[in-house]
Design brief:
5-stranded mixed beta barrel; Rossmann fold; binds adenine; about 230 residues; alpha/beta
Amino acid sequence: MAEELAALLVHAREVTVQTHAGRRFHVGTLHGVPVVLVLCGIGKVAAAMTTTLLAERFTPRMLVFTGVAGGLGDGVRVGDVVVAEALLQHDMDASPLFPRFEVPLTGRSRFDADPDLTAALVAAAQGLGDAAPALHHGLVISGDRFVSAAAECAALRQALPDALAVEMEGAALAQVCHDLGLPFAVLRSISDRADDSAHVDFTQFIQGAAQASAAIVGQWLKGDPR
Ligand code: ADE
């Protein structure tokens, strides 16, 4: 989100901007670490495109995605943070040719985040002390829908009982990173419960989420992620 990018850019130094395919890639340092910061865009195609451009043009060693998500799992509340262990496209369905959710010709529906990078982000969030959000670690699901109806939310919970959160980009980025062999992590602040009031909660929550992700990424970078 623009608010998250802005919260990170405040701390960035020596920034130059390169524009490709309508995206502004901010190249600089953050807490002394060389970084490229970019808005992902919304939805799976935007995420796949941004991820591919980042990987091919800037050859990063690792990729961290931050954003907001709707909470699905029991006990996943607004303001909590979910760190993805694996990601799945909940709107992928080429059945009966392939099992529901499986990405055709890959033999898989779940794409794992890098365990070390994920653990480092969890440790960074915990390192925020009193400011640390409640943390969850597990399956994050993505699709080209803003889930804002209790019935749809219930259907997703039934089909994928271990899903903690729903968003619109993570699994696309995960598939691209898997193909490219690029370690990645996905960190999501919960903005709503993907129910009938999701759209209201979402807009109210953005600023808080932006500060939370910037704080966690900052704490991680200060700990020397190399
Ligand atoms: N991102 C934040 N909340 C969401 C929701 N309810 N559905 C999809 N993406 C989201």
